[in-house]
C-alpha cells in the first residue's frame, strides 16, 4: 500500500497537521504497523517539494513546529488516478506450493498429504480471521474478509489440485 | 458420553444407495459442545455422513454412538423420538412450514415435545424478539426473505434445547453478508447454549466458524477425524 498516496487522500478529505494525519492513518490503515512521526513528516516534506501538497505558515504552540498541510490540484489528480486504476492482481497461487506438489509427485511422495496439511493450515488461519471478525471493528472485519477470500481462493485451488492429482501424477511420471 | 469421551461418533460406517456407495468406512467423533465442520466436494458423502450420525437413516454397516448408546441399532420410532427431542436440524432451505406463521413454526416442535401451547408461543415470541424478527411473528414463513427464514429455522431448531444441532449447508442459498449473519447467529447461540454442532458445508468460509473441520473424500474421512481431548 502506498503511504504517500494514502496520506494525500487523507489531505484531500481535509487539510491537516502531521499529527492528525498520523492519527487517522493509524486508525484506519496501519493495522498494527503505525507510522512513525519521522515518516509522516518526511513524506509530507516530499509531497510539498513535488507540488502535491502545500504547507501553511508555522503555527505558534508548544512542542515541535506545527504546519497545516493541504492537497494541491496535482496531488488530487494523483489520488484520483491511484483510486481509479485497478491494483495489479497478486499471484495468490503460491509458486512454492505448486512446486511442492509437482515435486512430491515426481518423487513418489504423498502429495495428497502435503496438500491436506497445507489445507489444514489455511483453514486454521481462516478460523483465526473469522474470530477476529467476530470480536473486531468493522475495519477489522473488512480487512479479515479480504484475507479470507484470498485464502479461500487458495483452498479452491488446492481442492481442485487434489482432485487432479491422479492425472498430474501420470503427467509428471515420465522424466 | 461415549467411552472415548465424545458425545457422538461414527465408526467405520458404510452406506450405499443402489449401486452408488456413498460412504466407504467413514469415522468421525465430536466432543460435547464442539462445533465440527464436515467438508468435502460434491458427492463426497458428507451429507450422507451427517444423515447417518443424526439417525435420519441407519448405515449399512459400522456403528453410530450417541451418548453411550448405539444409535445405529435404534428402530425407526426410537430414531424419530431422538430427532424430535434431542437433535435439532437446519438445512439449506429452512424447511419451515410455509402456510404457518413464524411463531407457529417455532412453537410447533415445542408443542410436539409436550410444552404447553401458551408457554410454547411465549418462547417463540422471545426467540423472535431476540432474532430481531418480533414484528414478523404473524407472518407466514413463505413471505420471509431467505435470511429471515434461516434465522427462524435456527430458532426452531434451538428452541427445544437440542444436545446436537445438525446443519447441512445452512448458508448455501444465501448471499455472503446474509450467510455471515446466519453463521454468527448459529454458532453464537450454539456456544451460548453449549450445543454440539455438526455442520456440513463445501464452503471454507462457513467452516471457519467451526472449532474444527474434517474432510470427506470418496466416502471416507481423510483428515483429522478425532477431536483433541479437552
Commentary on this structure:
The complex is a heterodimer of chains A (175) and B (230). By secondary structure, chain A is mostly helical. Chain A folds into 2 domains: 3-84, Arc Repressor Mutant, subunit A (Orthogonal Bundle); 95-173. Helix content of chain A is 69%, strand content 5%. Chain A is built from 8 helices and 3 strands. Chain A has a 3-stranded antiparallel beta sheet. In chain A, α1 crosses α3 and α6 (111-135) runs antiparallel to α7 (138-163). Chain A is elongated. Chain B is of the alpha/beta class. Helices cover 34% and strands 25% of the residues of chain B. Chain B has helices at 46-53, 76-85, 102-112, 117-130, 146-159, 176-193, 204-207, and strands spanning 8-17, 20-30, 35-39, 61-66, 69-70, 87-90, 164-168, 196-200, 212-217, 220-223. The model of chain B has no long low-confidence stretch (mean pLDDT 91). Classes of the chains: A mainly alpha (175), B alpha/beta (230). The interface between A and B is medium-sized, with 18 and 15 residues.
Amino acid at each position: 500500500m502506498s503511504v504517500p498516496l494514502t496520506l494525500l487522500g487523507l489531505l484531500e478529505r481535509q487539510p491537516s497537521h502531521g499529527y492528525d494525519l498520523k492519527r487517522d492513518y493509524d486508525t484506519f490503515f496501519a493495522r498494527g504497523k503505525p507510522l512513525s512521526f519521522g515518516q509522516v513528516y518526511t513524506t509530507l516534506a516530499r509531497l510539498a517539494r513535488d507540488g502535491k501538497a502545500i504547507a501553511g505558515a508555522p503555527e505558534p504552540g508548544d512542542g515541535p513546529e506545527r504546519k497545516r498541510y493541504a492537497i494541491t490540484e496535482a496531488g488530487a489528480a494523483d489520488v484520483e488516478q491511484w483510486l481509479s486504476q485497478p491494483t495489479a492482481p497478486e499471484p495468490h497461487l503460491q509458486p512454492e506450493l505448486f512446486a511442492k506438489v509437482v515435486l512430491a509427485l515426481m518423487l513418489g511422495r504423498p502429495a495428497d498429504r502435503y496438500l491436506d496439511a497445507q489445507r489444514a493450515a489455511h483453514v486454521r488461519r481462516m478460523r483465526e480471521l473469522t474470530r477476529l471478525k467476530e470480536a473486531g471493528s468493522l475495519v477489522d472485519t473488512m480487512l479479515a474478509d479480504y484475507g479470507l477470500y484470498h485464502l479461500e481462493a487458495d483452498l479452491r485451488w488446492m481442492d481442485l489440485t487434489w482432485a487432479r492429482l491422479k492425472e498430474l501424477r501420470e503427467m509428471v511420471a515420465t522424466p | 458420553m461415549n467411552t472415548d469421551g465424545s458425545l457422538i461418533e461414527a465408526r467405520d460406517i458404510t452406506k450405499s444407495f443402489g449401486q452408488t456407495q456413498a460412504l466407504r468406512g467413514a469415522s468421525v467423533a465430536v466432543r460435547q459442545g464442539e462445533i465440527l465442520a464436515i467438508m468435502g466436494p460434491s458427492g463426497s458423502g458428507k451429507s450422507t455422513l451427517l444423515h447417518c450420525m443424526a439417525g435420519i437413516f441407519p448405515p449399512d454397516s459400522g456403528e453410530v454412538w450417541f451418548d453411550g448408546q448405539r444409535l445405529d441399532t435404534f428402530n425407526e420410532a426410537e430414531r424419530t423420538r431422538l430427532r424430535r427431542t434431542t437433535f435439532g436440524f437446519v438445512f439449506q432451505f429452512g424447511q419451515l412450514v410455509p402456510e404457518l406463521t413464524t411463531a407457529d413454526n417455532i412453537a410447533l416442535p415445542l408443542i410436539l415435545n409436550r410444552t404447553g401451547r401458551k408457554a410454547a408461543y411465549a418462547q417463540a415470541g422471545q426467540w423472535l424478539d431476540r432474532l430481531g424478527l418480533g414484528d414478523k411473528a404473524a407472518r407466514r414463513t413463505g413471505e420471509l426473505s431467505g435470511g429471515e427464514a434461516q434465522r427462524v429455522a435456527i430458532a426452531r431448531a434451538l428452541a427445544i434445547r437440542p444436545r446436537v444441532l445438525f446443519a447441512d449447508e445452512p448458508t448455501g442459498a444465501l448471499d455472503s453478508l446474509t450467510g455471515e449473519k446466519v453463521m454468527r447467529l448459529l454458532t453464537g447461540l450454539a456456544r451460548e447454549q453449549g450445543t454440539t454442532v455438526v455442520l456440513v458445508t463445501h464452503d471454507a468460509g462457513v467452516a471457519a466458524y467451526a472449532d474444527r473441520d474434517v474432510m470427506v473424500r470418496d466416502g471416507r474421512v481423510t483428515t483429522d477425524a478425532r477431536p483433541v481431548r479437552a
